[in-house]
Amino acid sequence: MSDLQNRSGARLGTQLSRRAVVDAATRHYLACSPLDMSALATELGIGRSTLYRLVGNREELIATVLAEQTELTFQRTAARVAAAETGADRVLAVLGRFMRAVSDAAPLQALSKREPLLFVRVALMPGPVEHTSTRLVAELLTQEHAAGRLELTLPPDVLGQAIIRMCDAHLYAPLLGKPEPEIDTALNLAAALLGIPPRTP
User: Fold this and answer.
1) Which of 7, 14, 148, 178 is the most exposed place for a label (fewest CB within 10 A)?
2) Where does residue 145 rank: exposed (0-12), middle (13-18), buried (19+ CB within 10 A)?
3) Do residues 28 and 96 both lie within one domain?
4) Are 133 and 44 within one domain?
5) How many domains is the chain partitioned into structurally?
6) Domain with 127 in it: what CATH number?
7) Domain check: are 21 and 41 in the same one?
8) Is the pTM of this model over 0.90?
9) Is 154 inside any structural domain?
């Protein structure tokens, strides 16, 4: 059996198959390149029907890639917040770093400019991206609450979803007709939800 056959066989019919597709799509995304499903199938040495069976349609695949990049960016930004930041201050510091990292991400800018309607559906409507963001914020809220550093007036998942939906509306303000992201406004509103004074003017 040839090396190519070995590689193709390793991809097909296994969990690694889906991982290979998502990894390949992620490489295209990070290169700011459009995602063409036919070209992706050819690149991976599989048929289009197999590709769709593994990862769903194009929009579903893009949502998966964005959800994974969301988690990676959030975890990286959270790790950079100083240990001295605790409670609501920590939550706001993570949110601020996260939103600025997202706003500055060239691949995300390229996708939102190239396909704004698709981006709105994937990033601003219920789906993998929102679910991932909500889970991450809820986990952060839970950690600070469990450590006795933050009082919560709502369950973490409910509060997390409220914070994410509010932040998204301001982070992606340019898609809604505003001249630029309104990150400071989002942080002020998040502070209000957490019961503390605004941190920014």
Assistant:
1) 148
2) middle
3) no
4) no
5) 2
6) 1.10.357.10
7) yes
8) no
9) yes
CA distance 88 to 144: 8
| 52 plus 82 within the same structural domain | no
Enclosing domain of residue 42: 14-56
Q: What is the distance between the alpha carbons of residues 15 and 91, in angstroms, rounded to a whole number?
A: 35
φ/ψ region of 148 (left if φ > 0, alpha if ψ in -120 to 50, else beta) reads left
Residue 25, domain member (yes or no):
yes
Q: Which two tokens stand for residue 103?
A: 């706003």
Question: What's the token pair of residue 129?
Answer: 């991206």
pLDDT at position 1 is 37
Q: What pLDDT digit, counting tens, does each position of 120-139 carry?
A: 999 999 999 999 999 999 99
CB 197 within 8 A of CB 191: yes
CB 171 within 8 A of CB 177: no
| DSSP structural state of residue 36 | -
Nearest CA among 184, 182, 139, 133 for reference residue 162: 133
Q: How far apart (Å, rounded) are the C-alpha atoms in residues 72 and 110?
A: 19
Per-residue model confidence as pLDDT tens digits over 49-82: 999 999 999 999 999 999 999 999 999 999 999 8
